Amino acid sequence: MFKIKLNIDNLFSKEDFKNLFSRSFQVYKNKFFEFEIVYYSNTLLDFNFSWTSRVDHAGLDLTLGLLFYSVSFRMYDRRHWNHKENRWENDN
């Protein structure tokens, strides 16, 4: 797992959240893509980057936010990881 995160929040604002846009679709048999735009009144600056492998729903996750608005991209595997056998679970 690799993760970088930087968040600066407005502690004095009244919390308000709105999902402005959200789409997800299947790219390959087990790979999915998600895109989202949100309004969150507490966010002044938001940067999140995460890349995971050999875990449940492994993949790439990126969020960029500035002055209350954030854009998120996520590409992930829908399967679960079997740690005992070191492989993906069957997707029956």
Main features:
mainly beta, two-stranded antiparallel ribbon, single chain, six-stranded antiparallel sheet
Largest sheet: 6 strands, antiparallel
- Number of helical elements: 0
The number of strands is: 8
User: What is the end-to-end distance?
Assistant: 27 Å
Biggest sheet: strand arrangement = 1-4-5-6-3-2
Rounded radius of gyration (Å): 16 Å
What is the H/E order? EEEEEEEE
The parts where pLDDT drops under 50 for at least 5 residues are none
Strand content: over 45%
- The number of distinct structural domains comes to 1
Structural class estimated from helices and strands:
mainly beta
How confident overall, as mean pLDDT?
91
Q: What helical percentage do the residues reach?
A: under 10%
Topology, element by element:
Blueprint: E1 2-9, E2 17-26, E3 31-40, E4 43-51, E5 59-66, E6 69-77, E7 81-82, E8 87-88
Antiparallel strand pairs: 1-4, 2-3, 3-6, 4-5, 5-6, 7-8
